[in-house]
Amino acid sequence: MRIYINESANYYKPVKYTLGLVNDFCVDSFEFISSKDNCEMIIDHKDSKSIGIDEEFYDKFDNGDLSHQNILHNETLIKDNRGKVDFLTTIFYLVNCLQEYTTKEDQKDHLGRFLYEKSWQKQYNSIEDNVVLNLIEQFISENNIQKTQDFQSKIFVSHDIDSVNGSFMQDGFWAIKRGRLDIVLSLIIKEVFNRKEWRNIDQIIKLNSEFDIKSTFFWLVNKGVGTDNIRNADYLIDNQRGLISTVHKNSSFNGLHKSCSTDSINQELHKLPSKVTINRHHFLNFKLPELFNQVEESKLNFDSSLGFAERYGFRNGFAMPFIPYNIEQDKPYSFVEMPLMVMDGSFQKYLKIPMHETANIAISFFEKHKYNSYLSFLWHNTHFTNYKYKGYKEEYIKIIKYLYESNFEFVSPEEIIQKNFQND
Predict the structure, then answer these.
(1) CATH 3.20.20.370 corresponds to the domain 154-164+199-421
(2) CA separation for the pair 116, 151 (Å, rounded)
């Protein structure tokens, strides 16, 4: 399809980027031409034949208010000054989480993280909806573009390793409160022989292999209390070389779990015993666009931090990995962001959902997105144990069994990166 975009307009590059996202769902490739002659789509706010395009939105990049209250008026749609729906600008705004770029103090929690409660997802009750895909499909339909065939959704499975030594104290306290001295004795014996309950990476790998899952393990390199008084690892990363090697030898993947510290990403990557280029921020403790800028300045090519700690669903309204857009430099970044959608801690710590209901809720979410999605799923190593987190291993098994039997394809970071850079 031949498309003309006004090259002198402030939206030229962002719109071209957004059409790249749309084109993934179209049969025919988009061809950008410099003349309106023989083109099949015009994008030019000065032309009455143009599709909807809100030029004024892009003027807000420098010093405007990008909050959803200022950009989205009573619906998740941006319109131009003629009242035409501007699908491309809406997609661009949602995908890149631009609602977070001018966050006010009352929109943050005590760690400075953007609150789900202050989001457009909360306002429009759409946190579980693949809003961007719906917009893409509307755009395709309204412009008579042939859509690609639906594909079976894919799953990225990961495990954050916050603790390997905590079982003795935390499970032990749990057992003492219940008068289970037999469990306390068992924990003491395991501690003596270094067979700690939470040092269970090999068990997780074995379980995942039964379902053909090659999962990713994110490791903290800094121990103790870090910035914002957040507890980082309870282990020394150099003492985990054997476990890290076990992950690699079993065709799974290791990544950095960027700690809450003043270290740069590259400084922390240097502390890992093996070379990695993938990351997730500990505690999902980040701000935008700082997260994107920090990843861009590092040796990473893959990040999976973009999720709400307190709610499962879509932080950017899109069930796909993507390359974010650098609005300051007016070009895409050079790494892939794989948003985080489902995490055990959201159910257990924030939503306080009863343990035995966890799997059914997660499965219901995945069932809504069986097609045309890349979904991510995090289960901490601590939640595969039998005491403080008893029952969560069984809930995990229910979820992955459903995914396996429903023909979801499990994918690795390498496959996700390849999907995004296949045309480069």
Answers:
(1) yes
(2) 30
| Contact in structure between 219 and 180 (CB atoms under 8 Å) | no
With 70 as the cut, is the pLDDT of residue 223 above it? Answer: yes
| Tokens matching residue 422 | 């296949």
Range list of H helices, 10-143: 12-23, 55-58, 60-63, 68-71, 87-95, 120-123, 131-142
Residues paired with 342 in a beta bridge: 377
Cα–Cα distance measured from residue 378 to residue 162, given in angstroms and rounded to the nearest whole number: 13
Task: Tell me the one-letter amino acid at 173.
Answer: F
Q: Taking residues 134-157, what's their average pLDDT?
A: 97
- Write 169-173 long-range contacts (CB < 8 A, 24+): 170/388, 171/197, 171/385, 171/387, 171/388
Q: How is residue 108 annotated by DSSP?
A: B
User: Is the separation of the CB atoms in 311 and 350 below 8 Å?
Assistant: yes
How would DSSP label each residue in 127-191? TTS-HHHHHHHHHHHHTTPPBPPP-B-EEEEEEEE--SSTHHHHHHHHHHHTT-HHHHHHHHHHH
Q: 66-75 pLDDT, tens per residue?
A: 999 999 988 9
Examine the pLDDT at 167 and tell me if it is beyond 90. no
Instruction: Round to whole Å and give the CA distance between 235 and 265.
Output: 19
103-135 confidence digits (pLDDT tens): 999 999 999 999 999 999 999 999 999 999 999
Residue ranges per domain, the chain?
2-142, 154-164+199-421
Host H or E run for residue 325: strand 325-326
* Residue 373 near residue 320, CB atoms below 8 Å: yes
Q: In this structure, are residues 43 and 4 in contact, taking their beta carbons and an 8 Å threshold? A: yes
Q: Which residues pair with 303 in a beta bridge?
A: 279, 337
Q: Work out the number of other CB atoms within 10 angstroms of the CB of residue 106.
A: 7
Coil, strand, or helix at residue 188?
helix
- Residue 386 CA to residue 394 CA, distance in Å, equals 10
Cα 79 to Cα 41, 82, 91, 279: the distances in Å are 18, 8, 12, 36
Q: Which residues pair with 253 in a beta bridge?
A: 216
Q: Which two structure tokens, joined as six digits, stand for 103?
A: 């966050």
Q: What is the pLDDT of residues 327-365, one digit of tens each?
A: 999 999 999 999 999 999 999 999 999 999 999 999 999
In 10 A of CB 194, how many CB atoms? 7
